[in-house]
């Protein structure tokens, strides 16, 4: 009986804390400066209490709440991670997050990566990448398996998007000790996405290619003992990728399809890295690309002439995807011409 009452009291207390936090987050969006300032000061004080990170993660993960509040919670969580996650870092401030709370935050964020709202998905990905900078791979060994599991689940395209968004952020920060262990697991998975346009679509295929580009760029910076290892690694993977690049470049460039241009741009960037970093390997496979590249070159100029020269205005100018990457026809054509001069 007593234990039930205690449990009930704790539950009520948690509900009150959660409601207080929701009210505070709402008040930070208030048009009144005084209300905002008081709410921000209250949140700053609350961030020093145990469980604050977990409470923010629960709000960010709660699909029943408004998008604005969830996004704000995820942004504040990222700031909280920077200050309190890792002792010894320049940005660290006491108190440190407990091991138990870290586990809760990591679990909630991973479970939210398949959110259907792009902005939430991006905010969650950024928070995961912030934690990964401190914990991964040693302190978070199940991160990569969890992301790969999401990617392989073709029934949940939102999960594929979230995992790729997260991997794109992680791949920008890989060091030369991690790449050789990750690439053999990651590249076959990314190749599956790129080679199945009916399932994944050009937007997700482009995301997958951007990760290939980041990893290949890092492979190219390695030297000495790592160099032989990475060359051996790429020797097995080069042909399937070159074949896939040929398939993409062989198709005529589509007008009014920025996702198509973005994907081809990523293909050209990847090819550039392959040629620069693994010339001896690429040489044998290169002839496969020449015809398809010429097809892209000719048809892209045709689309460009139609829109920019014969058209009244360029309807494709200044477009960006949901992650902020430019998708204009100009930037694509410049990339094609630069590659032709390589």
Automatic annotation (TrEMBL):
| Gene3D superfamilies in the record | Leucine-rich Repeat Variant
Q: GO cellular component annotations, sorted alphabetically? A: cytosol; nuclear envelope
Gene Ontology terms, MF aspect: small GTPase binding
Q: Which residues form the signal peptide?
A: none
Keywords carried by this UniProt record? Nucleus, Transport
Biological process terms from the Gene Ontology for this record are: protein import into nucleus
Where the record annotates domain Importin N-terminal, the positions are 39-115
Does the entry feature the keyword Transport, yes or no?
Answer: yes
Compartments where located: Nucleus
Quick one: where is this thing mainly located? nucleus
Q: Which InterPro entries match?
A: ARM-like, ARM-type_fold, Importin-beta_N
In terms of PANTHER family, this protein maps to:
IMPORTIN-7, 8, 11, IMPORTIN-9
Q: What protein is this chain from?
A: Importin-9 isoform X1
| Species per Swiss-Prot/TrEMBL record | Rhizophora mucronata (Asiatic mangrove)
